[in-house]
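User: tokens in, sequence out, please.
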């Protein structure tokens, strides 16, 4: 018999619960029983899958294949970075700067180069107005995406024409249905063999500033 917490004490209740309520209570008990049974079956299936994969959740994750939407987002990230470099080569400041998030930071190869977007935008417009375009052709790139496909980390090797050992590292963030650059750092790579000489040259130069 179904009872409610707002009823009088049990000894003064003389009317049985209406058949409709009894039917609902019975169905509710059946639903709970079925849910418990389904939950037990799902748990058993998950344990069996983990056992088949050697008990390691990582093994299950490696077997999962990304859906079409993930592949599309990855391809879009590649296209955004390619178009960003292309805009720099063409001297298209509006197109180039539009690929940045508003809170973006750009790190140049000089020790003092750390630009917020507002300062960097002024520098870019002045440079492109003087036809000082930047040619950095990506020759190799690696991207790592976050679990929700809304952030990506990347590194890339660039051929800058005069010096083909430039490396760029950065972060992309998904916003306004596109990828935007939140952080980018450009550096010159130095072979170990000439590292000590380069370090001494840098120290001498910085000491003279």
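Assistant: Sequence out:
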């Amino acid at each position: 018999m179904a009872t409610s917490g707002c009823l009088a004490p049990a000894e003064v209740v003389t009317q049985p619960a209406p058949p409709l309520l009894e039917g609902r209570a019975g169905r509710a008990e059946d639903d709970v029983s079925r849910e418990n049974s389904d939950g037990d079956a799902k748990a058993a299936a998950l344990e069996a899958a983990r056992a088949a994969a050697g008990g390691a959740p990582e093994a299950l994750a490696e077997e999962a294949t990304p859906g079409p939407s993930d592949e599309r987002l990855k391809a879009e990230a590649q296209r955004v970075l390619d178009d960003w470099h292309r805009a720099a080569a063409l001297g298209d400041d509006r197109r180039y700067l539009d690929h940045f998030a508003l809170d973006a930071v750009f790190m140049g190869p000089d020790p003092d180069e750390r630009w917020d977007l507002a300062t960097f935008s002024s520098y870019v417009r002045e440079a492109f107005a003087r036809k000082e375009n930047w040619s950095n052709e990506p020759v190799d790139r690696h991207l790592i995406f976050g679990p929700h496909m809304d952030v990506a980390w990347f590194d890339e090797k660039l051929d800058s024409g005069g010096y083909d050992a430039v490396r760029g590292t950065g972060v992309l963030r998904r916003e306004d249905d596109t990828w935007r650059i939140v952080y980018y750092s450009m550096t010159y790579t130095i072979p170990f063999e000439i590292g000590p000489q380069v370090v001494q040259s840098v120290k001498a130069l910085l000491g003279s500033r």
